Amino acid sequence: MDLFTFIKPKNELEKSDEADVKKPFVPDEMWEKCPECGTLLLTTDIEENLRVCSKCNHHFRLNARERVNMVADKDSFVEMDADMESRNIIDFPDYDEKLEKNKLKSGEKESVICGTCKLHGIDTVIVSMNSEFMMGSMGTVTGDKITRAFEYATEHMLPIIVFTVSGGARMQEGILSLMQMAKTSGAVKMHSDAGLLYITVLTDPTSGGVTASFAMEGDIILAEPKALIAFAGPRVIEQTIRQKLPRDFQTAEFVLQKGFVDKVVDRRHLKETLSHLLKIHNYGEVEQ
Amino acid sequence: MSAFEKVAAARSTKKLTALDYINALFSESFIELHGDRNYGDDKAVVGGVGLLNDMPVTVIGLEKGRNTLERMERNFGAAHPEGYRKALRLMKQAEKFHRPILTFVDTSGAFCGIGAEERGQGHAIATNLMEMMALKTPILSIFIGEGGSGGAIALAVADEVWMMENAVYSVISPEGCASILWKDSSRAAEAAECLKLTANDLFELGVIERILREPTVENGKMFESLKLLICRTFEKNLAVDGAQLARMRYNRFRKIGAQKPELITE
Fold first, then answer.
1. How far apart are the CA of B30 and the nearest CA of chain A, in angstroms?
2. At residue B110, does pLDDT exceed 70?
3. Do B177 and A193 touch (CB under 8 A)?
4. Cross-chain residue pair B256–A140, CB shorter than 8 Å
């Protein structure tokens, strides 16, 4: 017994046994702690708030399907190329196991899902990357699916909305991953030359080969608050220059200030913003 | 040679740099052009115009420098955004005057630093990839040393990519790969093997068109035959309609890792 507890008078509650105290029973999965401000939040409340902390506005990470559901009209998403999945093409050690593990973990076959949907009734192609699958890294299938989504949009004269989240090119597929940067960029260019609208939504974190290709090629580049947006991640830079980086370096707000993002949009206003932008570009006009 | 010995050879300071090739191929006809017209002049990127057997050519190289002082001045060939933007400016200029573009790639990668991030390294590379794909003039890239990831491909969206026999081209450095995968950068040799980064590997993977014997300064004949090879390739591609050529360039990349036939039909 230390001095403090010795002199502190005990009240009735403290005297009683722990087991006697009746605490409300709350299963763990009902709570989530905000990693930013530490507030304990009811999972149902977070879900209702589009997974944004009601205290500090921290945007929790979403997986690819949650993102699509957030902006697509109910039941309007039709997935394309859902059957495409990565193979260990250059025979990289432990890659097969890693792929299997990530498929199980994410319930997805690749780090991106693509398809068409309606957004307030407006037809659009939608691409959503997934941080739960190998940190959204871009392998050949990722690149191929995204390329095909742009080609589909070009062929059908549709706009395209891309949610990015990625650690960069996938090293387990070597040089073939790097080639996807050029390939996707070529598909973006064709879509652009056809006079069609491409909106990027950068989410936390977007980095490496994805930042250095289609993520930065949108006609309009939006970002989620506080998202890390970088070419080289902070750790790589700290190692190179051997000094600590300021805390806000490479946040969406920082990148906006440097001129590489058009607008930082709160998740709760994103659908409105996207549909407004589509309308301004004459999509969703009543067909004759 | 093992993959990691190739990496060491590609990084060797004894290796010919981009300027060595430019001087040997263009001799006095090369005029260097500076600046990106936005921010500054990045010395890690050398660019200009010259004559290759009387053929006007725009030539751009990632230059590491040939001695310690030069290497520091040129940031060891690690370019900043303004370097890539200078390259794009010169390539657009080449398209305007319908000159073929020759690039020499030799870099450990695009520079990772505060200024590079602030000025949009990702944006600069992305823009080059997108614009190069559509340039209506022939582009040929030759890897003469290190081909480090995004910083290399930003100058290598070409009709054909050639590599010197001791050059490498990789998505990540072997050290970086080993430290991410095994938390141990000393296993770089093992990583180099896995990454398939040698000229032979890349030829087999269909990423490059040609492997070249490395010329030496003493052997002028080798430069002459390289010059001839480059000129012939340019002549062949200059005969193709510009839009068609850009389309062929897209298809060249489109087929790498393609899982299904293409969607767009002409």
1. 29
2. yes
3. no
4. yes
CATH no. of A62-280: 3.90.226.10
Contact yes or no for A119/A278 (Cβ under 8 A): yes
CATH (domain of B34): 3.90.226.10
Chain B hits for A179, Cβ within 8 Å = 153, 207, 253, 256-257
Alpha helices in chain B (DSSP H): 3-11, 18-26, 68-73, 81-96, 114-118, 121-134, 149-153, 174-182, 188-195, 199-204, 220-238, 242-254
Based on the structure, what is the number of domains in chain B? 1
Q: Which residues from chain B sit within 8 angstroms of residue A141, using beta carbons?
A: 257, 259
Domain ranges of chain A: 62-280
Q: Quick check: is B244 in a domain?
A: yes
Structural domain for B244, as ranges? 3-251
Q: How far apart are CA A32 and CA A229, in angstroms?
A: 25
pLDDT (tens digit per residue) in B113-157: 999 999 999 999 999 999 999 999 999 999 999 999 999 999 999
Domain assignment present for residue B261? The answer is no
Chain A residues near residue B258 by CB distance under 8 angstroms: 144
Q: Is the ipTM of this complex over 0.85?
A: yes
Q: What is the pLDDT of residues A86-106, one digit of tens each?
A: 999 999 999 999 999 999 999
Beta bridge partners of B66: none
